[in-house]
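sorry for the late reply, my laptop died twice this morning and i had to redo everyting from scratch. anyway the thing you sent over, i finally got around to it. pasting the sequence first so we're on the same page, its 449 residues, then the predicted structure underneath. double check i copied it right bc i was rushing
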Amino acid sequence: MDELLGRQMPHSPQAEQAVIGSMLIDSRCVPEVVGKLRGDDFFVKLNRDLYETIYSMFSFSKIIDPVTVLDEMRSAGLYDEARTPQYVMDLMNVTPTAANVMEYAAIVRDMALQRRVAEAGGEIRDIAMTGEGGADTILEAAERKVYALRQDRTTGGLEPASKVLVNVFQQLSDAANSESAIPGKSTGLPDLDKAIMGLNDSDLILVAARPGMGKTSLAMTIALHVGKFSGKAVAIFSLEMSREQLVLRLLSGESYIDNRKLQTGKLSAAEWSKLSAAAAAISGTNILIDDNPMLSVADMSAQCRRVPNLGLVVIDYLQLMQSAGSSGATGFTGENRQQIVSDISRMLKIMAKELMVPVICVSQLSRASEGRTNKRPMLSDLRESGAIEQDADIVLGIYRDDYYNRDEAPTNIAECIMLKNRRGETGTVELQWLPEYTTFACVDTRHEE
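ok and here's the structure:
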């Protein structure tokens, strides 16, 4: 037991010294190291102080060499006259070459990860010993901690703005070098992309409409485009439709074969050929579907954490979801149900931030719009809205005039109304509704048979 208590946490003082020595010998390697290591990856305090000083200087584009680093440490109150100058000289002397700096950094990173695993294990044990919240809550907390380690992120804590700046500038640089005109993933609908700046990581996007307006179809149109062109996995949770029904919709939209005719299977040779091409295109994506109607946010989040290269999550639809620990989506009083749906929307936003992917959630609108002369959706029409509109970054309302004017010749024009838009202004984008294929396109898009 004494031996266990005296055991040191994993670390490599030689690798830590070699990383800092390399940056002092050759400042050209600083950008590479900064992209791989954080200050708390260093176990020895003086090494951590030196690295954080260099990190801060890099953030402000200051010249980095032994003299400037020591001066910066003196200004920050981290300078020890008796020890620091000699320690810096020793670091540079023991570092064989700066050419291997990324090898040294990998060792430091690996040791830091081992320490965090040990710390997370201790925290999980403490949570389990208290028994608060029951086994499901404890398991969710444990999975969240382990997932955060896998994603190279901590599960909380204050972060200096100077460190966040590095991430922001990296995002801006990536956007500038990208061929795309938008920072996020494309929805496949250029006019919508311009309005919401694409699908951005950590955004919660609500697609809201009355039944029959095409909200599921819009979500599937976007999901299929992301699956085909982003190279990332798309997770779809369908609480209303079966996997087979969803895939039929995807096939219809991809092949441009009438959905009703497709379901009969009575197709011409040319249509079978188109269907085969559509099936090949869908098979080439990494679209994953779960049609379990009893899922909670915790269940979805747990599944998504295990999906490598995840790019988008789609949930259809919010009002059918269960809260963690509830006995079902029904059987609640109106007030309780409103609180539950508000809790679910908050958990969805947390999930989007944790997974760092956009989450699209389909939502029903209340009947309030039916009683108005202008039946276009409003934020207040969100069913059991509570805090839904506060949690969402973007709320898209769908309105089709054809839905209410069935006696007139259909225009098949749908209005996608930005009811809330943290990425830009609110407004309306017109989309072409293709009812026979249950999909959307831009109004200027024409499909050639």
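The beta strands are 204-209, 233-238, 287-290, 310-316, 359-364, 394-400, 413-421, 427-434, 439-442.
thats about all i looked at so far, will dig more tmrw
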